[in-house]
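To: structure subgroup
Subject: Chain for Friday's discussion

All,

I'm putting the inputs and outputs inline so they're searchable in the archive.
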Amino acid sequence: MSSKEKPTLGGTRIKTRKRNIAAPLDPAAFSDAVVLIYLDNAGDLELVAKTIESSDLNFSRYGDIFFEVVFIGGRTQTGSVKSDEGERHPYSIIDCEPNREAILPSVVYIQKILRRKPFLIKNLENVTRRFLQSLELFEESERKKLAIFTALAFSQKLSGLPAETVFQPLLKDNLVAKGIVLTFVTDFFNEYLVENSLDDLIAILRRGKMEDKLLDFLPPTKRTTECFSEHFTKAGLTALVEYNEKKIFEVKLKEIKEVLTSQVAEEINIDEVIETVKQQVKDAKLPEIEVVRVIWDGIMDAVQWSGKNQQQNSNSVLRQVKTWAPLLNTFCSNGKMEIELMYKVQMQCYEDAKLMKVFPEVVRSLYELDVLAEDTILHWYRKGSNPKGRQTFVKGLEPFVNWLEEAEEEE
């Protein structure tokens, strides 16, 4: 074998392992650069926005820091809301006066930035959530400014602030227990309702999954409807108080109807059902009219409908009425309740196509079972005020009314 080296091809490329060489993180330099833009433009947010748009700063990497500078004038210490070392500017949201005139320009400014740099939306959400979770670290006046900013952000439909980002972080036990959350949302509600309706506010609460949990904003020791009403009435938010009372009322009605429907479907002893309803009505302090409505709904919701067979559906309703007449009789104790029951039957027969023709039979059955008096039926027939389906139902009930009137004349 030859000891000579074998020839090799010239120009061979030697492969090397590729490495991702990341630029060193320098949040301090970024923060100082943004602060300098504010200072150079003397806090003129229009000029600041234009300068930021033309700058080559790495906003995609330091988006959170950018919004820290917007909110508090500089970079924060890790895991805190306190200012870190470095430059600060005096034109932040925290440094504004605690009123809408002073804070609104910042909302408009952020909106402009987000339109030009939409990738910053998530950063705004991150910083907002972090600050709201740390409200106890801010002074009272600073919390008020954050509440006004947040309300204006929703009022101006600022991108990047989902409702759950605002309300869910607030529900930290320590924040709620200290009353900080209650003060914050009170300022928020008052500011938002300056230019928006209660329905708009409820829509935000619904998106934030707080529509049915308004009492959760109150400290545990004061978490009652009475305390809620007292606090927000003093704050001038009577419309919100009325809404909450109505909502609680609806929840109680729903609970009573669900229990009643379940008992009726299971054919529980009627005396036991009557006692259950009486106790629930007492606990919920329901008006008599609502009791009659919810009882009828509970009885009808338990009916097993057969589909399109008109006669079977009619028989099912009449059988249900006959079975549970004592329950209706217990709570239809006067003419006012009886006429309310007739209106309730009228509405259900009007809204449910399969029951349109059942109305006269149901009324007659209720009469024979002593739930409805003759005077009640004649009053509805002659002067009933609910127009829905009335013409059809009056015509259908005419033979029975004629029979009643003839019997009355004979007597």
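Points worth raising on Friday:
The chain has a mean pLDDT of 88.
The first helix runs from residue 27 to 40.

D.
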